[in-house]
Amino acid sequence: MPPAPTRIAAAQPSLVPLDSIKGRGTATAMPHRFEQREREQYDDGWGSLDQEAAEEHLPPATEVIEEYAKKIVTSNQSPDISFDYSINPYRGCEHGCVYCFARPTHSYLNLSPGLDFETRIVAKVNAAERLRETLAGSRYEPRSLVLGTATDAYQPIERKLGITRRIVEVLAETSHPFSVVTKSSGIERELDLIAPMAAQGLVSVYLSITTLDNELARILEPRAAAPARRLRTIQALASAGVPVGVSVSPIIPFINEPELERILEAAHAAGASSAFSIPIRLPWEVNPLFQDWLQRHFPDRADRVMARIRDMRGGKDNDARFGTRFTGEGVWAQLMQARFQRAVRKLGLRNKRRSVQLALFKPPRKPSAQGDLF
User: Fold this and answer.
1) Per the domain annotation, does 118 fall within a domain?
2) Measured between alpha carbons, how far is 96 from 21 in angstroms, rounded to an integer?
3) d(Cα 119, Cα 117) in Å, to the nearest integer?
4) Are 125 and 67 within 8 A, CB to CB?
5) Is residue 269 a part of any domain in this protein?
6) Hey, which residues does 90 pair with through a beta bridge?
7) What confidence tens digit (pLDDT) does each residue in 86-112 have?
8) CB-based contacts of 228, cutoff 8 Å, min separation 6
9) Strand 63-67 to strand 73-75: parallel, antiparallel, or no bridges (unpaired)?
10) Residue 260: predicted pLDDT
């Protein structure tokens, strides 16, 4: 019989926390929940452990894995998400946000939700072609679409590969409405495409800003744009007539939660006209990764942070139930939501999604079986 899969338990306070890796959110390539083998270090007498220790201190490089996707548009089946379709040009994300709820998706690739998620990036190189085929289908109906829900479509590798750019070109050509949530200033490179679309009510952009503190941002989301740079991106988008909002997500008690009102004020001053906020979620392997991060960077308040998270999650580290996973429950969740609502009312920010303009959509021409010969 094969050994039972490795159990991924919540991280316990460590006497000697792992050293941080500069520029990376996690410090370990922790096993995923489908792992069939357990590994342990063994000294063979030839200095192998010393060699492994030296190699582990080398900064891990980013590896791009090319994938030819069979499908690029995913239909939403969740009752508590307000959009119908999503497109993710990549799997994994080099930004390295330790709290990213999408980390466990790397487990399905037999890769670690830890370092692999932020260093082994799957690039869907034929994404634009697949999108064109989907939009040209006779049964396709345009609906609300979000670009980058389980990855950041404008993570650093996009500058080289341009996969997201080609997707946006297809959306612009067909006048298909879409929204983007990103932590990157790279969205500014698309202004030539999205500004004309915005004038037709086809585009909205949300910049995710979790903190205004550069030091906190450096360890929380190490390869994302600096907070001030994201504020300048909000300003650039707003100046170009693109409806832009701010996502203050995730809210982490005693870490970035004290900044909630200041972030909203700074985003509003930069030109944001809407906002939303979600408390931190710790699904599957995100839980031990996040708790390890807390012990490394905030050992003085790690227990207090987790206690408050459990207060908002029915006594558990995570609550995946529809209806509460994006809001939390209990006194502290209600207090957080009240603070957010009071701030957005004071600033005049919208906290509801804009209506989607569908009437302008025009399907692309179906590719000819013999090519465009005539």
Assistant:
1) yes
2) 11
3) 6
4) yes
5) yes
6) 123
7) 999 999 999 999 999 999 999 989 999
8) 212, 214
9) unpaired
10) 98
Report if pTM > 0.70.
Answer: yes
Q: What are phi and psi of 120, to 5 degrees?
A: -120, 95
Which residues, in sequence order, are CB contacts of 196 under 8 Å at separation 6+? 172
CB 198 within 8 A of CB 243: yes
71 located within any domain = yes
Instruction: Report the CATH number that the domain containing residue 95 is assigned in CATH.
Output: 3.20.20
Residue type, 252: I
Residue 39, number of CB atoms within 10 A of its CB: 8
Which residues constitute the domain of residue 207? 60-279
Q: What is the CA radius of gyration of the chain?
A: 22
Nearest to 72 by CA among 151, 18, 158, 13: 151
330 secondary structure, DSSP code:
S
- Decide if 335 is inside a domain: no
Structural domain total, the chain: 1
**pLDDT tens digits, residue range 299-319?**
999 999 999 999 999 999 999
Q: What is the pLDDT of residue 109?
A: 92
